[in-house]
Amino acid sequence: MTAPGRRSSTFTRLLRHGFTDATSAERLLDSAELAPVRSDPVLLEALGATADPDLALRGLVRLLEAQPDPAARRKLLDTVIAAKPLRDRLLGVLGASAALGEHLARHAGDWQALVTYEPRDLHPGVAEFERCLADADDPVTLRVAYRRCLLSIAARDVCGTTDVAEAAAELADLATATLRAALRIAGAAAPEDTALCRLAVIAMGKCGGHELNYVSDVDVIFVGEAVDGADESKALKAATKLASHLMRICSETTVEGSIWPVDANLRPEGRNGPLVRTLSSHLAYYQRWAKTWEFQALLKARPVAGDPELGEQYIAALAPLVWQAAERENFVADVQKMRRRVVENIPAAEVERELKLAPGGLRDVEFAVQLLQLVHGRADASLRSGTTLDALRALAAGGYVGRVDAAQLEDAYRFLRSMEHRIQLYRLRRTHLVPEGEDDQRRLGRSLGLRPDPVGELNREWKRHAAVVRRLHEKLFYRPLLDAVAQLAPGEARLSPEAARERLVALGYADPAAALRHLEALASGVTRKAAIQRTLLPVLLGWFADSADPDAGLLNFRKVSDALGKTPWYLRLLRDEGAAAQNLARVLSAGRLAPDLLMRAPEAVALLGDGDGGGLEPRSRTPLEQEILAAVGRAGSGEQAVTAARGVRRRELFRTAAADIVGSYGTEDRPAEADPGALVDRVGAAVSDLTAATLAGTLRAVVRDHWGEELPTRFAVIGMGRFGGHELGYGSDADVLFVHEPRDGVDEREAGEAANRVVSEMRRLLQVPSADPPLLIDADLRPEGKSGPLVRTLKSYEAYYRRWSLVWESQALLRAEPVAGDADLGRRFVELIDPLRYPAGGLGDDAVREIRRLKARMETERLPRGVDPKLHVKLGPGGLSDVEWTVQLLQMRHGAAHEALRTPRTREALAAAREAGLISAEDAAILDEAWVLATRVRNAVMLVRGRAGDTFPSDVRELAAVGRYLGYEPGHVGDMLDAYRRTTRRARGVVDELFYGA
Fold first, then answer.
1. pLDDT band at 116 (very low <50, low <70, confident <90, very high)
2. What is the rounded CA–CA span in Å between residue 694 and residue 702?
3. What's the pLDDT band for 182 if we cut at 50, 70, 90?
4. Which of 118, 358, 494, 683 could form an S-S bond across to 354 if both were Cys, CB 3.0 to 4.6 Å?
5. CA-to-CA separations, 76 to 56, 68, 100, 112, in angstroms, rounded
């Protein structure tokens, strides 16, 4: 008897053997069922070797209790103790699967299926499983026979007799035999249907790929034909009834549960299409309507049941189409987009536990392998396996994937699939989530041989393998391209030039020969620089491929690398700072403007990093002006000073453009900006502030060069149009007015000559040909337009506006704001014009009619010939002009009464009009959306083409690049244009009502 307070020796031994509930285990060992063997050390050792000793012991007791009589119980115990193979198999299953333990308790004799241990039992195939299911003649008996077969597969799996790939193949073979048995049962129930048709069952997905899970939907496609002499429509109805019955036999829940769902949604048109089609109907669909993912799914198609000849005809007819899929436009982008969509649809609470679909999961491996198969399988039949691991090994053998990468990926895939198998085996439930409970993770870790710290080791190994997959799955596609142009070790396989060309074409490169030359120039050799490039390029190539112009991205990267390759920080920045490389790839492949700005001073690459380069956050006007004025102060002459100011402007234009591109595209760590209005506002404010600071520096340089510290007249620059409204785009001129006021004691003529000379010098210096983009000053909005003087005194402006001002000039002054020069003079100019732009009594009817007449005339006379008016972002219906004139009319009518309307900014004024009740919230939102979209199109055209434009580009690649900037995936340019027309059409309706009074 054990003394009180002391643990029995059995209790201690149980803990040592891995039991977690030793008290309950001790009680079970003392039960009558185990009395004959309770002290046998063999039993305790065998239980301790299982994944969950407590579960195994409970399952064994239940199985003993279920035996029909003492003799049967004694036979079971004797066999367990005497026969090690049975002991390991039975207890291994009981310790890994509560569901199979329950099956054994219900069917007490099925344990004997684990007794035989002949060589032929080690790797059964379809024929062996068919024999096991031969006596099943209804859904219930089929389920019992299926579970009996599953017992033997699970036993071989948990004992290590088969590895994970062999177990998956056996599960697929058992599914094949089960589908054949279900079709046999369905046919026996409706022999008249069987007589009318030929029906073939095509396995898809993991079943077709011979790599099935323990519990998984079995994906199928049905093909039907009429037998000779039968009516086709009647035959298809008969085939549909047979197929539907087959699905119910496998899927419906009975007293013995279900087997697995049979899913036919991969068929043409999915669940909306007919369940059964003829072969010609399948072929017609795939030739005309199928999407890229449907050809990807056909990689695993395999006839498994029904008419074998028809099944083979189906495969033979569709195989050529599968291997042409890589030639489809946007092929790689479509596959990658589908993968991203899968990840985006994972519930946020499950991402960290998702074994299959999350980044670094099983689907990443499968997608990467399938992508490579589709690209190279047309020319290399050895790659056409539906089994992931077989295909991966074939890719490595052919040089399409690096051998080390393939080996690491195979190890990771095997581990993750093993985790998936053991998770599903426990309850025989379809799940891909790693359990959260410690007991569940302990059982899972032990089932994978991880001891003595199964929970800690499981999580470490899982994270390690997932990290390998994340690191390799995209690089797998790109790294062999570098090996194709590099010096490899003897015996190493490499991509052939033709295979490299195929891969580059699939990625969207229009000139694969040039791309290979760039790769060779960047990555060949044994220098440290080449080694770092070989590390960077596989990732960069993927980012370039995600753009509309991969060729330009790679070429620009070569140019930047050639310019900066000898600097010590450049490659280190790209290698070590996570954001820098992806930001650079986005910027270099998004169009011409940003790369052109960068090439003029490649050291601006530093802005793209996370470190001390200042990042991509636009700088405000005050620090910009301080930097420019300091540079001007250090310069020796006016030309040198303005050159320095223009250099700062070029760098900051690049920063703004890069931030805009990265914000529009998004990165792996940061999604694209969700609010397009915020992007527009940031660009407008940044470019406007930069232009104002540049003008301030240029003004200082001109004054200092000719007059020293003080100009003989006060001088101010007034921003107009988009400049005054803080809405400049990349290609906008600076619309301005110049105003001056002679200083005390200075002759008015002298002051005027000085002011005119300042304007002339500023315009000249800002347009001197140089490496920096010019800044064009446009003063055409001045009184009398091009016929009037460039600069006037404040009194002259006052006299002109009092006597001669036209309504359009008052309208133009709505956006006037001082931007440089004498602040007090600028303030007094604003005080002068306020009564003009915000008239106290509002606008008279004559003025309103004149504004409307001018607007209508502008629409008819200024719209360029040959362009689609509906796609002209400035003058087209619902475009910039429509929205701005509508808002400005509200400002002139109501600005005197509503102070919030007195702003030069379009969106701000529109919001103020909404708050004042002058426009409904719905109409304001419609106008705002149209204005933001049109502005973004304008910015996109400049970024893509490197020159300003108010219409969508006609070049296909340039149009696609505009689409990518606006957030449209490849191949959806039509959607972009439709959305633009729809948005501006709604806006024009509001304009007709509010502006024209229609």
1. low
2. 12
3. very high
4. 358
5. 15, 11, 17, 9
Q: Quick one: DSSP state of residue 774?
A: P
What is the distance between the alpha carbons of residues 989 and 998, in angstroms, rounded to a whole number?
9
Of 250, 269, 96, 88, which Cα lies nearest the Cα of 181?
Answer: 250
Instruction: Compute the distance between CA of residue 818 and CA of residue 820 in angstroms, rounded to an integer.
Output: 6
The per-residue pLDDT for range 357-381, each reduced to its tens digit, is 888 999 999 999 998 899 888 888 9
User: Is the pTM higher than 0.85?
Assistant: no
Q: Which two tokens stand for residue 587?
A: 């910027």
Tokens of residue 763, six digits = 């315009």
Q: CB within 8 A of 981, min separation 6: which ones?
A: 870, 871
Category of 225 on φ-ψ map: left (φ > 0), alpha (ψ -120 to 50) or beta: beta
Check: CB of residue 643 under 8 Å from CB of residue 632: no
Residues 6+ apart with CB under 8 A from 588: 544, 552, 553, 556, 557, 560, 594, 595, 598
Tens of pLDDT, residue by residue over 777-824, are: 999 999 988 899 999 999 999 999 999 989 999 999 999 999 999 999
CA-wise closest residue to 667 among 577, 603, 550, 604: 577
Of 447, 438, 439, the residue nearest 420 (C-alpha)? 447
* CA–CA distances in Å: residue 502 to residues 477, 638, 957: 12, 56, 20
How far is CA 498 from each of CA 322, 494, 504, rounded to the nearest angstrom? 20, 11, 10
Per-residue b or e along 273-290, where b marks 16 or more CB atoms closer than 10 Å to that residue's CB? eebbbbbebbbebbeeeb
Write out pLDDT tens, residues 964-986: 999 998 888 999 999 999 999 99
Average pLDDT over residues 701-721: 95
- The Cα 277–Cα 286 span in angstroms is 12
Query: Of 217, 223, 142, 222, which Cα lies nearest the Cα of 181?
Result: 142
**What tokens were used for 799?**
């006299």
Token pair in block for residue 775: 């800044």
Contact 75, 33 (CB under 8 A): no
- 684 sits in the region (left: phi over 0; alpha: psi -120 to 50; else beta) called alpha
What are the structure tokens assigned to 867, written together? Answer: 């362009």
Residue 171 near residue 188, CB atoms below 8 Å: no
Omega before residue 452 within 30° of 0, cis: yes
Cα angle 340-412-499, degrees, rounded to a multiple of 5: 65
Measured distance CA(320)–CA(314) in Å, rounded: 11
Q: How far apart are CA 271 and CA 368, in angstroms?
A: 27
CA 569/CA 328 separation, integer angstroms: 41
CA distance 327 to 321: 10
Which two structure tokens, joined as six digits, stand for 376? 């190279």
Q: Which tokens sit at 578?
A: 């996570």
- Residue 646 CA to residue 655 CA, distance in Å, equals 14
User: Does 95 score more than 80 pLDDT?
Assistant: yes
Opening angle at CA 855, ends 854 and 860, nearest 5: 95
Integer Cα distance of 810 and 892 in angstroms: 9
pLDDT, averaged across the chain = 91
Long-range contacts of 512-519 (CB under 8 A, 24+ apart): 514/551, 514/555, 515/550, 515/551, 515/554, 516/481, 516/484, 516/485, 518/554, 518/555, 518/557, 518/558, 519/481, 519/482, 519/484, 519/485, 519/554
The DSSP-derived string for 593-621 is HHHHHHHTSGGGGGGGSSSTT-TTPPPPH
Residue 33 is given by DSSP the state G
Check residue 484 and give its pLDDT: 67
Return the amino acid letter for 207. Answer: C
